[in-house]
Design goal:
The complex is a heterodimer of chains A (104) and B (151). By secondary structure, chain A is of the alpha+beta class. Chain A is 52% helix and 14% strand. Chain A contains four helices and four strands; from the N terminus they run E-E-E-H-H-E-H-H. The two termini of chain A are 31 Å apart. Chain B is mainly β and 151 residues long.
């Protein structure tokens, strides 16, 4: 292992949006797959009107969707249910964390 | 695939689940193509003092019964340094106080929430027990008075 000087990356905040092709690339997929996720209501573009842009925070979500789809050979409707449950667990965990009762 | 260690600077105000893209730090391209990018997803390690929720921070402040009852000025440790804060008289455990804009920096900045936890002094010597007995005699206080009632 060699150590390199400090690298400064780009912070993909919600303000830093990616256009469809770049977003698909960042999610290791192609634009058609991203379109399908938006059509199913699993992903929300930053602006409703074309050309679509996606906030950096959507990358983790899209990757998670694709992982669930692949790992469970699930269709998008099943993935939507899993995401709802994951979001709900995350919401409850956040509630515990705020109260100081969580696992960190 | 070989392992490398990168020193990465963390932008101020970044939050959990957000990504940092390091252009050209990913795997080599296929057939001599350009190197890919490396994406880092940020996750905060648990902090012994502060809890994070989005851009807000939460802190549990332990107070003595008389501080909660009578009000007090207390010092609260925030990431930006110590802040003096007033605990309002008549506070109870679970009361939430907000220090606006003292959370994760940004536009808008997050808030810093202080959750009060009233801690009883131990009754492990005669003086303390006498003080508790005096309170029990002089205060007409029933903590269960409101239970099941409609008050």
């Amino acid at each position: 292992m060699n150590t390199e000087p400090v690298a400064t990356g780009e912070w993909l905040s919600e303000a830093h949006t990616l256009e469809l092709e770049a977003f698909a690339l960042a999610c290791c997929t192609d634009a058609d797959v991203v379109r399908a996720l938006v059509d199913e209501g699993l992903l929300q573009p930053a602006a409703d009107r074309p050309p679509w842009h996606f906030g950096g925070e959507a990358i983790a979500r899209a990757r998670r969707i694709l992982r669930l789809q692949r790992d469970f050979e699930a269709n998008l409707q099943s993935v939507a249910v899993m995401l709802d449950l994951i979001d709900e667990v995350e919401r409850l965990r956040a509630q515990l964390r705020r109260a100081g009762l969580g696992d960190g | 695939l070989h392992e490398r260690t990168l020193q990465v600077s963390i932008p101020r105000g970044i939050r959990g689940a957000q990504q940092i893209r390091l252009a050209g730090q990913g795997g080599p391209g296929i057939g001599g193509g350009a190197r890919g990018d490396l994406y880092l997803e940020v996750e905060f390690a648990p902090h012994p003092r502060w809890r994070v929720d989005g851009r807000d921070l939460y802190f549990t402040l332990r107070v003595a019964p008389w501080e909660a009852a009578l009000g007090a000025a207390v010092e609260v440790p925030t990431p930006d340094g110590t802040v003096e804060m007033n605990v309002p008289a008549g506070s109870q455990t679970g009361r939430k106080l907000r220090l606006r804009g003292r959370g994760i920096p940004g536009a808008p900045a997050g808030d810093f929430y202080v959750l009060l936890e009233v801690v009883l002094p131990p009754a492990n010597d005669e003086k303390a027990r006498a003080a508790y007995r005096q309170m029990s005699h002089e205060l007409a206080f029933d903590p269960r008075a409101a239970e099941g009632g409609d008050s």
